[in-house]
Amino acid sequence: MSPEQIKNEKRLAGQHAAKLIENQMTIGLGTGTTVYYLVEALAQRVKSEHLQITTVATSSRTANQAKNLGITVKELDEVDHLDLTIDGADEIDSNFQGIKGGGGAHTLEKLVAKASTKNIWIVDETKLVPQLGAFPLPLEVLPYGSSLLLKRLQKEGLHPKFRLDNNGQKVFTHYHNYIIDLHLNEIKHPHLLAQWLNQQVGIVEHGLFLDIVNTVIVGKLEKAEVIPVIRH
Ligand code: 5RP
Q1: Are 83 and 114 contained in the same domain?
Q2: Is the Cβ–Cβ distance between 82 and 28 less than 8 Å?
Q3: CATH number, domain at 142?
Q4: DSSP-derived 3-state class of residue 193
Q5: Ligand 1 centroid to 201 CA: how many Å?
Q6: pLDDT tens-digit profile of 72-105?
Q7: 82 C-alpha to center of ligand 1: Å?
Q8: Taking the complete model, does pTM exceed 0.85, yes or no?
């Protein structure tokens, strides 16, 4: 699929999701290029329909975009619940389990998702995969002891690599942690891997988002398809 087509599918998914937001809702806003279109479309509705909504953003990128477009943005600790969170994803398997964190925002994204009554993911078609793992699995890790942690992950055969920027420097997250990406190719047992990662000291959060999403909106050539999640 061409980059233009992918962009168009992201736009269709984002715009469709914006239509599902209702007056008085408290909304979690994810991060990424698909969420960008959601925020744009939501801002138009806020303006034209005078929608009264509150949002919580999962990155300064999204927060800045939303605020600049006139959307109210609060901190997670300033709200007592979230009705709905809409976010992108890097991979979604046939059982609606996902990998997130391509943009390094997965810790905040998971905090917001878990505080939310309902979660919607907005994606282009390339994100739907039979099995997770072709996309490297991101881990946010504490800088202290992170080289030792990398060796431990290597020993486990998890093919870890620090995420680097264009200058070859380690990328920092919002909270000044590092990202280690696991180049696994396939994840046969996502729950077992998540359990193991949860037990490792030094890992702040991993990018496996399991049993979280309720609805997936996939941009297709000319429309968005809404898929209610039923897990087997
Ligand atoms: C950021 C994320 C994003 O939601 C994910 O990377 C998808 O991004 P995009 O919509 O740009 O394809 O998890 O941490």
Answers
A1: yes
A2: yes
A3: 3.30.70.260
A4: helix
A5: 26
A6: 999 999 999 999 999 999 999 999 999 999 999 9
A7: 20
A8: yes
